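Troubleshooting log. The previous structure file for this entry was overwritten by mistake, so regenerating from the original sequence record. Sequence copied from the archived sheet and checked twice against the printout by T.R.
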Amino acid sequence: MVVHGGGSFGHPIARQHGISSTPGEAPPLGVAKTRAAMYELNKLVCKTMMEFKVNPYPFSPFDAVARAGKADVSKWLRDLLKRNMTPITFGDVALSGNGFKVLSGDQMVLELAKILQPERCVFALDVDGVYEENTRVIIHELSPAKIRKMSVAPGDDVTGGMKLKLDVAARISALGSKVCFVSGYRRNEFSKALRGLDFYGTVVQS
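Regenerated output below.
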């Protein structure tokens, strides 16, 4: 299944209106604009998938959250997969306490990994993987223990950038799944990662 983030659609609008992964007050119009941007992006992603003969089944993260129990969600998603559908969801803005917060696509991957217990999770990046600090040297293998010792800047998006991705990867790998960081621009390498083959990038596993 597929989870996409906000990219240049959701993040700039959320930032403009002070909406982040920390719950807080937010202007209703800002929430509405951010969510509208995410649904617009999701529509484009689904359109592209169909052009390549993939059958997307888009759903809001709340469709999964609202279901009663993990077994329910697991059966629902697996039934879609059996019917040749590809479930696809995305980062969104959630009501939280007395305000709103960004529900990151990365966090959705973690929650879905808990439910589906996949063999691997593949993160498509705009870089080749995780680099050694202040270099362009790829770290090919990481463990949760090593990630916890790393110093990583949060990045410039509203959900924590690479720092959040690494935190999520450590937690997913602790569940027994392999996590792959690979460039989405390197189609062959991305394809290898999806198929469980050796690829140029970073693998996180316990």
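The mean pLDDT is 89. Archived copy saved in two places this time.
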